[in-house]
Prior knowledge:
Layout: E1 12-16, E2 54-59, E3 72-75, E4 89-92, H1 96-115, H2 129-132, H3 139-149
Helix pairs in contact: 1-3
Amino acid sequence: GSPGTSKNALVIGANNAVNDLGAGGQEEGRAAFSSVGPAGTYTTLANGRVAPQLMAPGNELGAGDMGLASEYSCRSNDNDQANPVLCDVVSRKEGTSFSSPAAAGAALLVRDYFAQGLYPDGTSGNAGNAGDLQPDISGALVKALLISSAQFLTGDKPPTFTGHVPGGDALRIQYRFNIEQGYGRVKLDNALPPPN
């Protein structure tokens, strides 16, 4: 895809998906195909801004090691969308094309959290709930909450070489807000109390 050089947009990279079958820790690694920054070059309009800013699941390690692939494509053999749509062909897919919708879904959950009046305590049954309803929070607040929820990726593999040029899925830069992972992976419960 095109480079993420927009000034106010969130550029989303791909980290490995969480494995629910017991092989944990894979979510701490950057997907090898996920691009790294900086956005543009230091001589272009992008001025070398850090990209990606956030990571979201977009890669499943192994061939279906999580059972039904968590990032998958489903279609019918007849390719029509008439009811019922049968999922005859299930195939494992990966890419930031899965990461970006995951982050967009997280952004929608943030907006819904405020629209239901769940902020600041995660409950909608409090006496002041009517005053807590905020159906029109700004995009800047949504972006800020996504970034503040980020969990820094520690990596699931050691670097294969020294230096600052990223490659593969090993994370080499060990400080926050870097060109490999930005602030880290979106993890909403780090910023907003889970609803009861």
